[in-house]
Design goal:
- With 801 residues, the chain is mainly beta.
- The chain contains six helices and 46 strands.
- The chain has a 22-stranded antiparallel β-barrel. Strands 10-15-16-13-14 form a five-stranded mixed beta sheet, with no helix packed on it.
Length: 801
Amino acid sequence: MFAQKTTILKGTVKNKDKKAIENVSVEFGSTGTVTDKEGNYSLRVPFKKEIVIKFSHISYRTYTHKTEVKSRNAIRFSPILFLKTEKLSEVIVKDRRKEAQGIISIDVAKAKAIIGANAGIENILMTLPGVNNNNELSTQYNVRGGNFDENLVYVNGIEVYRPFLVRSGQQEGLSFINPNMVQNINFSAGGFQAKYGDKLSSVLDITYRKPKEIATTLEASLLGGSITFESPFLDKKLSIITSLRYRDNSLFVNSKQIETNFRPRFTDLQSFATYQFTNKLTLSYLSNFSLNNYNYQPTSRRTRFGTVAEPLELNVYYDGKEENNYLTLFNAFSLDFIINNEWSFKGTVSSYNTQEEEYYDISASYNLGEVDANIGSDNFGEVGFSQGIGSQLNHARNDLDALINNVQIRGTYKKERRQLDFGLKYQNEDIRERIREWEIIDSLGFSIRPPNSVGNTQPYEPFTGPIKPFQNIREDNTVNIERFSGFAQYNERLFIGDHEVWYNLGVRAQSWSVTSGSNSSQNQIIISPRAQFSIKPNWKKDMLFRFSGGWYSQPPSYRELKDYYGKINVNVKAQNSIHAVAGMDYSFNMWDRPFKLTTEMYYKDLNDVNAYSIDNVRIRYRADNVTTAYSYGFDARLNGEFVPGSESWVSVGYLKTEENIDNRGSISRPSDQRIKFAILFQDYVPNLPNLKAYLNLVYNTGVPGGAPAYADVYQFQERLRDYKRADLGVSYVFADANKQYTKGWLSKFKELTAGLELFNMFDIQNSITNTWVRDVYTKNQFGIPNYMTGRVLNFKVSMKF
């Protein structure tokens, strides 16, 4: 009787990968069974009656099936179950330590993707408030009124350096920092902790990554390319990442006004290896080989300037060439030792060697003429009258060999919310330089004598004095600097009521002595106390306030010991600055998306300043300490998802910095960049999200500069024109971590991106220096701007296997 009223329902339960699932509960009403190891089940169900069968498993989504069995024969039903995904409410975890320390953390992927003539880490710094650079061919930057030499750069806790003899941005080549190897980027624009070194302006702290998988990354563009290989070995105890880069700036140089035979080529090879002996002992090795060849042979130049009513034209014809070579070698070993959960130590030994050659003989003959501005004239637009005719010859045979060795040890003690850091370092700098440099200026056949020379009344009276070059430097310098430095700092995180508080107290000290030939300085000592305090109130609004400051000192480097004429002053003292920084971070939601507003005010009071002048990227110091100065300003940055899923930001900064040289009165410093405005904007096509666009806009007001090398800064306070630049990049992501293929040609790639980059999209003429030409009739000198790069289109492809 029961068999007449029921029939058998059976089948096999599998997952989406066609694998059988055991212990699936199959039931209807109060009747049920479970699947066996092969996923099979068998169950009697009513005949000609609608039922709902439920298939359930702890790891899979429950599946229900409504059916009515109309046949007395056995019926098969084999469902597919899908893994269960539990949706949790959003959990946001924020690490406030870096914000409390006034450190900006930059996303590595964003730093690699940003568009700029010098693609890399420094390029994204130019979009931050308080950071300025008016030279797209240079990776150097000024921070809050400082110069290039006042910025600290660390890679894995090891300080790195830049070449000594570089004069222009187009000679610089590749930055030491390789963006393909970077894991973390931290930047502080002032008020930084005692654990960082003795500089006045900023800290860029870079950490290279340890590979976790085998991968090869290739990048290629019209400007060069790179190949990066990374892999773990020996059961992941050994990890190696190495990268070879090549760059050719011909595309940029050919966009300038000067016609040249010019191929600046730059190559570097970097490796970072780690070996983990145990969980507590790790050895690291960082190396760099860099070779920059700068061969420059100008042929001619034509530049029009002046006013609409009185246009002028400069024509220059060149002969000769310039050959510069910069060879850099860097090696560093580090040993990390973790004693227990509280104590850890790190010892580092590093060596940096740079061998630089600067050879040139360039003759320039010029003709400065008036352009016919009469529209009705048959010679409209042509040079009708020559105001100045002359020539100059520049010669140099400069060699430099610098060897910097150091050894340091650092320790850390952690206990709950408290941390103590300390360290000692010894450094020896051995620099040898040979300077042979002179310039001869001729105007209408008469040799121009050096400034402040005894005049003559030719041709009315004969002149019997010797003929001297306009500039002449002949020095042989051998300098040895020994430095001992150390620091200690204490950090703690605590609560005052419901308010979260961080504070840091630290002090640095350095002792050094300088020997140059038979001259030796007395041992000099500096002590630099620093402090930070931050508080996050327990408010409904997510805000954090921070205050930092202290006494910052910068002992002189070799470049700061050398005056305008190449002579060494061994008694140059450290420059000192009292910093005071107050900032606020405000995190909020706008348009249902996260945003963050960061603002900072700062003031610097500087004494024992070593005044300097800047020509392109070449800094020349007075090599004395007779100057006082100050800087103050305000920085703000708003970053967030202006476009859903893509972070962008807007930066605004105001700066004023002045100096008083030998009590002659206050004047603007060479880095007095009053207004800074920058936008980094990322976007994508909504219906095609893999098509992305990057826009980088920068506006900087002009800085004092472009003066003749011999000019008195108190008599020449003209400013260069404002710096305006817009770079645009469009790329398509064929494959990445979120878009992988299992078949087809794209399945071979972990990442594949291709795109176009348009540099200086509005073709704005920016200048960083002037060429000075004499008018023999009016005795005036004209500053003709040396324009930077024009509009350039570049194609770029990046792939990872």
